[in-house]
Structure formats: C-alpha cells, structure tokens
Amino acid sequence: MPHTPEELTLISDALKAAHRKGREAGRRRGHKRGYALGCLHTLRHLAPLLKPGHKLHKSAAAAHAPKGGVTIGGKRFAGGEFIPGDVMAKATEAEREAVEGGGTKTKQGEAEEWDGTIEAGKVDYNSLPWAETNYAQWSDDEGGEHEIYLEAGKYTPPGADEPVKVYRFVSFTPDDKGADREEEGEWTTDRDEARDQGEEYARDNHQEQRDPEDDDIDADDVTGQSWNNREEIGRYMVGGGARTVRLEEGEFEFGGRTHTCYRWSTRLDEDGEWTLDRRQAVRDGEEYAEEFPAQWDPKLGIHVT
After folding, report:
1. Is the pLDDT of residue 16 over 70?
2. I need a labelling partner for 273 at 20 to 30 A (CA). Which of 157, 175, 191, 266 fits?
C-alpha cells in the first residue's frame, strides 16, 4: 500500500541524513568527490525506504526544536533550531515527547516560539574560529582563484537564555583572503545547509578561463627585451640622421600563465602599444618608419632623405 504523507516526510528526512553521511565520507577526497559520494549514499538508501512494509523510525528523522526549546542528550536546542537526525536517533522517549509535545515553557507558562529568523547584525562571529577553511573553490574567467570558507557564529534567539551556534559561507576574492568578502551566505543553524550553499555558490559562479586580449596587457607589468636583442623592422630620418625601428618582444602574466606580446619601438623617439599580434606590431612599426623615409646612399655609406 502507498506510504502515508507522514511516512513520506520521514523518508525525505532520512534521505537527507543519508546524503549528509555519504558526503562527509568523501570530503577528504575533495569537495566534488564528496558531493558524488553523498548522492551515491542517498541512492543506496532509497530502495529499502520506498519498499512497502519497511519500518520507518521517526526518532531517526531530523526535526526542529519546538516552542520554548528542548534539551536532548544534554545539549540545548532553542525553539525552531534544527535538530540533526543522528541526535534525534539517540534521544530518549521523554526527549522525543518533548520535541513532539511543545518543549519547555517560559516563566509565564507559555511557550516562546522562534520562527528560525536570524538577525545578521546580532550574530557574534568575531569570537569564534572558522568552522572550515577553503573547502570549495571557483575560478573567474581571468584565472583568479576564489575560496569558500564556512563561518561560525553565536546567536541568541528571542526569548532564549543561551545562544545557539549558526553558520554561513563566505567567498573571498583572490590574493585578499580574510579581508575582501565578495559574498556572504545567510546565517542558519544547520551547518550542512550553510556548507551546501557555499558549494552551490562555487559551482554557479565558476567560469572557464579565457585567453587574454590586448586590453589585458599592463605595460608596467611587461618584461621586455634589451635594445640590442630587438629585431630591426625599419629605418627613418630625424634631423638628417637615420634611426631604426625595432620589434620588441615581451612577457606578461595572465590567469597564472605567461604570455608573449609585441610592440614596435625606437631608441630615442616613440614606442608602439603592446599587442598579442606580432604581425600587427610589425606593420605598425613599418608605417611609422615610412612617415620619415630614409634611403641608402652607397657613395656616402649612410641613409639620407
């Protein structure tokens, strides 16, 4: 016979717990590997859960603390706080009844309800270390490596006496980790949820590295050639004297790789713009020389106008 709505809810919670367990097993092999193992672990648990007559254990399903909060295994959960399935599995009968029956009462005898909303401005995260560092990465189209951290904080819900632990992901820009937060996730009491949001952000923002363009060349960062190592591509006249136009080859870094660029150059007058196109640099240098033409005089042994 078909599962009841309550049983389907339990199946959903159990699968989520199975996915987290499998993902944890694969994290040491890299975040992508961990995600794949999480999916595999979930599928392995799917068949028996959907089989008619399978006994579903409600105590193993994840839950949220009821109004007024509840204590399970010596740990306090504020009203509305997420309670992992493994914690519920170890709960006593009285503790499970407390979760299902409304939890602890306030001094006025009424349950204090927290809807789970976390006011970011009231979270204390400066006093806690990172929950996890550099657990996911993504790259921009210039090859810049961005890192995802899991941040931990403390938040005291309305009506609660003690704070609960909350989490969010933080994405840092390259070469400025710990200072420039380019993106912050929403605070949540569910560590796995915050971690998953960070991995999802990394996947959604990852870009394939593109090849550089001329606009990406910063002249101040180019390592060029000495004058004597440059190839002559033309001659021109200035004040009765002949001068040469030479092709300069340089190197610059882009996306973690070294690229070659070119420009025409003179020793005393002007230099062209750096470009990735060698032929264009040669043509531009030749055009510059043609503006001040010089011809070789075999009798005088010099270039003359």
Report:
1. no
2. 175
Q: To the nearest whole number, what is the mean pLDDT of the chain?
A: 78
Q: Are residues 244 and 296 in the same domain?
A: yes
Residues 205-215, buried b or exposed e (16+ Cβ, 10 A)? Answer: eeeeeeebeee
Q: What is the domain range of residue 267? A: 214-304
pTM recorded for the entire structure: 0.46
| Cα dist from 89 to 63, 85, 178, 191, 284, whole Å | 11, 6, 38, 18, 76
Sign, CA dihedral 296-297-299-300, equals negative
pLDDT score of 31:
45
Extract the tokens encoding 117: 């909303």
Q: What is the pLDDT of residue 231?
A: 96
pLDDT of residue 87: 86
Task: Give the number of other CB atoms < 10 A from CB of residue 270.
Answer: 9
Q: What single DSSP character describes residue 223?
A: B
- Residue found by looking up tokens 């550089």 in the block: 212
- Of the candidates 167, 188, 205, which is a domain's last residue? 205
Overall average pLDDT of the 52-56 stretch: 51
**Is 113 within a domain?**
no
Structure tokens at 143: 């090859």
Most confident among 90-99, 166-175, 270-279 (mean pLDDT): 270-279
Distance, in Å, from the CA atom of 240 to the CA atom of 297, rounded to the nearest integer, reads 13
Domain count, the chain: 3
Under 8 Å between Cβ of 95 and 71: yes
